[in-house]
Structure formats: structure tokens, C-alpha cells
Amino acid sequence: MPxxxxxxxxxxLPLPVYAKYALLLSSSRSLCxxxxxxxxxxxxxxxxxxxxxxxxxxxxxxxxxxxxxxxLTCRYRRKKCVENTFPICGACARLNLKCIRDSTRDVVPPxxxxxxxxxxxxxxxxxxxxxxxxxxxxxxxxxPPAPSAERGEPPQKRQVMRYYIEILSQFLTVNEQFNSFLxxxxxxxxxxxxxxxxxxxxxxxxxxxxxxxxxxxxxEAHSTxxxxxxxxxxxxxxxxxxxETKVATCLAFVIGEVCVGRYNGWYTHLSGxxxxxxxxxxxxxxxxxxxxxxxxxxxxxGQWILRNxxxxxxxxxxxxxxxxxxxxxxxxxxxxxxxxxxxxxTGLLRYVSILCVLDEETRLEQALPDDExxxxxxxxxxxxxxxxxxxxxxxxxxxxxDQLAALAHAFRSAVLIFLYRLVRTRLEEEGxxxxxxxxxxxxxxxxxxxKIRTQVSNILRHVDDIPVGSHAESAxxxxxxxxxxxxxxxxxxxxxxxxxxxxxxxxxxxNIALSLDTLEDLWRRRRELDGVRxxxxxxxxxxxxxxxxxxxxxxxxxxxxxxxxxKQPADSFRRxxxxxxxxxxxxxxxxxxxxxxxxxxxxxxxxxxxxxxxxSAVLHRTLKSSPPQVVAADGKYLTFADxxxxxxxxxxxAVSCIGNNNQRVKQAMVAQIEKFSYCNSMFxxxxxxxxxxxxxxxxxxxxxxxAYIMCSGSEAMEAAMKMARQYYxxxxxxxxxxxxxxxxxxxxxxxxxxxxxGHVARRSLFTDMLLPNIGRVSACNTYRGLxxxxxxxxxxxQLADELDRKFQEMGPETVCAFVAEPVVGATLGCVPAVxxxxxxxxxxxxxxxxxxxxxxxxxxxxxxxxxxxxxxxxVTPDIQTLAKGLGGGYAPVAGLLLNKRVAxxxxxxxxxxxxxxxxxxxxxxxxxxxxVQRIIREENLIANVRKQGALLEKLLHEYLDDHPNVGNxxxxxxxxxxxxxADKTTKEPFPRSADIANKIHLxxxxxxxxxxxxxxxxxxxxxxxxxxxxxxxxxxxxxxxLIAEKTRDTIVRAxxxxx
Length: 1059
Known about the structure:
By secondary structure, this protein is an alpha+beta fold. It contains 38 helices and 23 strands. The chain has a 7-stranded mixed beta sheet, with helices on both faces. Helix 19 (477-486) runs antiparallel to helix 20 (490-507). GO terms for molecular function: DNA-binding transcription factor activity, RNA polymerase II-specific; pyridoxal phosphate binding; transaminase activity; zinc ion binding.
């Protein structure tokens, strides 16, 4: 049921009149801001019949007493700031901006100070904090009371705004880019309570996206703001300032709707702004009457508002595929400025307006006569040619900063892409008859793809010059979306994906998430419909609502930040969460009720509510939070500094296979340290290393002949790649430099091993640095790859043929090796191969003389029910990597195993592996690994892995097969994965914005005291969620049952909370 907002009826307002206000305010999902003559007549009728004088903003005459004492004197007198061309209010001194004013006046107009009638009323919302009541003011529901105010008394707006100024003066960089924001929005918000309330509504709505405790306040703030706007619109004032603040309020509502994901509401507010602009009238000092946009052009603030409206209106026309609400002529003479966050891009957007109008007015309709069709064709092509010429010869203003110049160039390329898209569509409509001069100019279909590809590259290059979180980044969504919509190369797609992900993480705007989901859907459809051109318009046509590709300047987010600060400016950007229970709002036609207790959410287990990230000198995996501190571990349980103890159901990352605090391993390590702790492997060997190598070789029944000991799995893969290359150099096949790996794989985090990996998200940030000599084939994933009606045997033949074709494509004589994980762990979620798959793959390798490399870093050393996972497959690798379970987490240790063929190749050549590490074969690491492997063998733990693994498989299927969001359960031994889907029938994954895997992990950690290993990108490297289970080899039947039950309860609870 759609959310509706309701405003409490003032007691003095008769019910029939209130009903009309409610109808206006609660229609659909947001306020209908259309200020049509009908609305004015209706509201005027309400006033006449009720005798009510609506609350309006205080109007001050120029030169009046209020004008002389208020903060906006310089604004009315149009004095200029010496640092910029914009009028600056008296608050500039508090904001550390230079101004020609000699003194600073009061910040807030006196009309805001005393609200005697409202101050006596009880505040509407109540939040329980430490057992006491903190009333939330109707006017500013999120701001704590001023120190001087009594308990429960709403803060006065003078105090609130002075506090705003105090905080803003500390956090805003003093430069020209911020001047226009400060001289436009801040003074206007100080003068207009309607705009002020709209900004509060936006900020509280933005906060509610990351903290559900703010939802009640967001609803109240939104209702208050809409009610105040409706009342203000009922009594229009023919004054430019009145129109400026009301249009600014509409634009604030546009951003607020987009921010929180109400995609059908923003266009209503944008239409309201358009009607206000069109209907504006104001008298000048000379007696002339200005109308429409000319009213706004008389002041720099009004010009800024027109540019802002143009930004939203024109960009919206691209995705809505219709002409803008207003003709672009109103921008004449006001675009050649360095704007707040658009730079000089507004002038470029005029071309989009021109093209939208052109496309509509020259549309080819079958009913038209031939001469009219020809005239329209000629006009369309001639105008497009002119626009392209002007855009190609466009130059950015010399005084624009580097970031704003980069943004402007990105906008220029985006407009060119928009132009070429229109041309492409028109050429398709015209078909073979397109023989005009324009066609020859652009080179027809042969040149258009090249032109578009060039502009995509240009956008990505220029956006790369705009730092994440910078002021200019506020407007990159429009060019990035058009670039992503036309990107055909994987590198370009990855760059678009990564940058939008970073922007989304920084700003949390829901239209960024929707844009990213739209692009992901587009890229997926293109892959599935290879050879068929799919456009983002096709995706939008099937989506939930229109998409707006605009954002806001960083200064708007400062409003959001200020709402959550307390009176200590030094801590003003730290969240101060409520410690006690709060209530969620259930909205019905009767109003807002308080129901459903909500406890404070721990958004990430790594968040320490008492320490800021800066308190740690460690470069943790995220600098956004401090992780929980493990202070003790025993067996399968971890204890944290706050006293919480959890059952580690994943052995970390499938590492602690025999549990923690094993006395035998500890004694073996200490014994080695007492002998010696390190020796240089370049010159010396040691007995403990010989013993470990012997243990490993015996575990392969002598099939492998040499062992090479390192510290991590990534190092092991790097060594495997270099070993394969050196082997062919030693055996006189130096042309073999290429490798073939699989999609969705993960082989490590160093550049070489990451190049081998096929997981898109993990590669994307470093795409330009990765090795180009690695081909890729499909993974063996029956859940995603096996077609309906296809047998497993046919599936194996299909994959073997694909590998054979890849050898042919790359050149059989150039391929070093095929690399694969026997059970794909972290990236796909414990996906084993079907029977016969690896035999078929090795047969193809042998056919072309290439090596067969298996990566068992995660799946090996007993994890899957055999000591080596390949022993279950009935094949032997030429090179094998292993880690994690090798040392059981007691020391960083990994290994590389070679069969006789490879070892002999090196021995018969130079006799030396051209590779080495300082800590290679570290004695203490070897001692730990040797003892762990002896425990596994002597205590027959691999048999227990098979036994308990079978029980875990049975319980997981029993508990979760019927869950509507559990798509697949797969694995082997004590290595199991659960894949989550939005639709079990279509296997459609959840959007990334749902963050399902991490939410399940957090639910398990915070509520069930277990650790589940989350993974994303399960489907295609970007979309898809899964969770891994990798219990210890020493697990008992009771522990396995407990793990299965807690896993079931975690998943059920997480999805229940999400719903």
C-alpha cells in the first residue's frame, strides 16, 4: 500500500477546509505542487468560507525597520561581495567569507523568533532516550533542544539557524565554488520558513535511508514542509523573492523525492516549479511588470534557480524521452558563469533541450505528405549537423577550476552521445532511403559506433579527473549513465560500474542505485542476447518508474550532516545514535500511530559505537569503521572485547580447520622458535621444511614430486604462473605466454593472480593494470549454466568444446596453462564441478600440450572430504596451489606442488626456479603446518569431514529448500554455499542495493552469534548473493546440527526483517 502523508488539522480550521488540504497534500505518494489557477481558486474559496487567514511568511518592505535590522540587508540593497559577483547576506562574516559589509546583523528574521501559539503546544513525536522523554519539535524534528530551553520546549528558529551557521562556518571550504550556494540557498532559507522546512525534510529523509530511527521524523518533516508550502501558495505575493523561495522549495522537494526513491513524485514537484516560473509576476522600480523567467533574472539568486531548474528539467527529458517542461530560451544570458556545482555545463544542456524539441517537431508520421516528410528530414539532419559542429568546437571557460572543467567536458561528450543516439534512431526509421548530406557527413552506421565509443572514452577520462566525494562529482550521474548505456567494452563497463558504486557509497541517493541497476540489467541482456542491440530505454520501459539522472551539490549533504550533530562542533560529523528503543510509524488514514519497536541497528559488525575509525593506526579493510576486537579464541569460538562470543561456522575464511588454541601446534611452534626462528632460503635449508615437504608429497601418493613453501595463496598463484612460463622456456617453447582461466573465479589479490581471476567486481578497480594475456571460459555451474533438458554429460561436452575453441582463438602454441578451482569458493559460493568435467578439461590441455593447474587454496587440504580436492575428480594436476587449511591459521603459510613432468623440465634446464621470497619456507610456519597436517592425518579428521559434511548437506536441504529466497544449496565435504535469489523460478538475483549477503551476515553476527561468510557477484560478478559455511574438521554431530539451525534462523530472520 503506498505511503501517504497526513497533516494534523489545526483546531481552528473547520473540517471541510482541512479535508481539501489533506486531499492536496496526500494525493498519491507526494504533494501535488501544481499551482494552477484551479488550486488558487479552491484555496481562496476555502479562506472565504471559513474566514481563515492562512499563515503566511512575514513580508517586509524595502527600507523598513525589519529590513534595517535583519540579516538580509545587503541582499535587498544588492551590495556585492568582493570575492564574487553574487549578493551576500550578512551571514558571510559568520561563514568566514569576505564581504564589503562593515558589521554583521542578526542571522534570523524576527518573524521567526516567537511562535507563541505553537510553543505552548506539545510536540508531536516522542523519542525515549535513557528513560526520559525528548520532544521533537514540529518545525525542526531532529534538532536537539537548545541548552537554554526547558525540557520538552521546541527550540526557537533563531537558535537553530545560529547553530547552523556555527557548524557551516567550520565545515565549508571558503572558496568561490561555495560562494554561490551560500549567497543563494542559505539566505533564502533564512528568509523563507517554507524553504527551510523543505531542506529539513530532505535532510531527514536522506538520514532515514541509513538509519531507520529517523523514519518517523522524516514523515513528520515531509508533512510539515508540504503543508507549509500549500498554505504559502494559497496567498501568492507579486515579489521576486517570494517566487524565488517557492521555486527553490519545489526543487528541494525534487531532490528529496529522488533521494529516498519515490520516483513518481519528483516530476510532480518539477512541474510545480515550472508553473511557478511561468506564472511569476513582479513590478520593477520603474513601474514595468516582469513576467515568467524574467522575474528571476533580475537577481543572481534567481538566475541560479533557473539554472538549477534547467539542470533537472533538461536531464529529465533525456530519460523521459520528451521535450523539457520549459523552452530553453529562458537560459539566454545566464549560462556563462562558473556555477556552484555544474561549472559551465548548463550552457551545454541547452543543446539537449534544442535536440529534444527538434526530435518532437520533426517526428516522421506516416500520415504526413511526402514534401512535409522531406522537409522534416532535412531540418532534422541540418540542425544535428550544426549542433555537432558547435559542440566539437566548444571550449571551456579559462577561469573554471580543473574539476569543473573536467565535468563540463564530460557533459559535452554526454550531449554528443545523446545527439548520436537521436541520429541512430532516425536512421533506423528512415531505413535505406537515408541518403541525405548528414548521412555522408557522419559516415552512416560505420562511423556512428566509432563516434559514440570515442565519447564514452572521453567521459570516462574526464570523470577520472573528478575525485570521489568532490564538489563536481555531484553532477556526474548524467554523463556516466549515458556512457554506461553505450559502453560495449568490458573495461568501459567496469569503469562505469566502479565509479557509480563509489558515488553511491558516498551519497546514498536511490536514483544512483536505480541507474546502476538499470545499467546492470542492460549489460546482462546484451550478454544474453548476443548480437541483438538492447537499449537502456527498453530496460526503463519495464522498470517501476521514471529515472532522474540529477543529484545535488555536496552542500545539501551538509544540511543532512548537521541534523545529527550535537553541540560539540568537534564531533559534529559523528553519529549519535539513540541508545534505547524507538518506535516506527504506521501511517493510516487516521494519521500517524506509533507502533513496532525498533532496536538500534548495527549496520556493520565492524562498527564500534564507542570508537571512531581514526582511533586505530591500523589500515583496516575499511576506514569507515573500526572492526570488533577479538581478544580470545578457543576451539570453534571467538570472544570479542565487548564480551560477545560467537560460533565461527566458517573457520574465518575456511582457514582454522582444526580450531583455535590447539596445544600440539602451539608446542611445535615454540619448539622450533627455541631452535631458530628464521634462516635465509637463498643459502640455507632446514629439517622442518624437509619434513613438511615430505608430508605433503606423501599425501598425494607420490603423484606430485616437489613442494615449494610460501606465505599466502596469492603468492602461490603468482609462483604457479611463473613456474608454468619458465617450464616452457626451459623446454624450448618460448611462445607460450598465455593462460586460460574461468569466469567467476578468484585466484588472489596480487596483480598477476588478480589478472587470472574472473570476478568482475574484484578486478574492476585495477582493470587497466591487469595482464592482457589471459583468456576466459565459462565456469562449470549447473545452477546457472545447465540448460533445461540438458544432461550433465552434454554440459561437459559443451564446456570442453568452449575450452577447445578458446585454445584455437588464442593460438594453441601460445597457451601455457588452463587454471581452475576444483570447487569455486568465495566468488561463486562453493560450486563443485559435475562428474567428468575436469577429466574433459585436462584432455583438452593435453591435446594442445598445455599445463593443467588447479587452485586449491580454499578447497584443498581436506576441506572437501579428500586431502586434495582433485583426488575426488580422478585427475592429477601438473601444478597445484594450496594454503588456508595447510597451516590452519596458526601461521601464514601456503604451498606449490609440482608433478614429475614440470619438476623434471626445470631440473633438466637451468635447474633453478627464478623466483623467491624473504620468508619463503619460514621455519616456524613450516612447523605449524607440519603439526596441523599430522593432526589431520592421525586423528582421521578427513573421514569426519565426509561424515559431518553429509549431515550438514541433509540438514541444509531439509531446513531451507522450501525458503522462497534460497535458490540453490551446493558444496562438498564441509564446504557449503547457499545462493539467494529474488525469484526462485527465474533465478533473478536481488539488486545490489538490497545488500542481502551482508545483511544475512550481520543478522547472524549480531542476533544469532554465528559467523557466516558473505559473498556477492554470484551470478555475473556484480549481481547475486550467497553465504558460505566451512565448519572445522573437528566438528561434532551436535555442533553441525546447531550450525544448521542457526543458519536457518539467521536466513529466515534476515529476510523477515527485510520485508
